[in-house]
């Protein structure tokens, strides 16, 4: 699939996902936040989410770019993560 990296919708989506990550982190002190689904298959959305997350945190808790990049990740198994998880639950 061809993605248009310059489309303004990506920045809007990244901003909303960063807000969700910020809320999750501040309410649960999560070490990892795994974002999956079709939107996350875009090669340029995750860096935008991390950048917006750091901007939104505005220095609170000393969150830096490298912290966001290690905290907010995509599933190791990619699009197969849901199916593999379901199979593991059945076992």
3D architecture notes:
- By secondary structure, the chain is mainly alpha-helical.
- The chain has one domain.
- Helices cover 56% and strands 4% of the residues.
- It is built from 4 helices and 2 strands.
- A two-stranded parallel sheet has the order 1-2.
- Helix 1 (8-28) packs across helix 2 (45-57).
- The longest helix has 21 residues, at 8-28.
- The chain starts with 7 loop residues before the first helix and ends with a helix.
- The mean pLDDT is 93.
Taking strands numbered 1, 2, ... along the chain, how are they ordered across the largest sheet? Answer: 1-2
Q: Total helix count?
A: 4
Structural class: mainly alpha
Average pLDDT for all residues: 93
Q: Helix coverage percent of residues? A: 55-70%
Helices and strands in order, then pairings?
Layout: H1 8-28, E1 33-34, H2 45-57, H3 65-71, E2 72-73, H4 81-90
Parallel strand pairs: 1-2
Helix pairs in contact: 1-2
Short description:
With 91 residues, the chain is mainly alpha-helical. It is 56% helix and 4% strand.
Question: What features would you highlight for this structure?
Answer:
91 residues, mainly alpha, 4 helices, 2 strands, 56% helix, flat
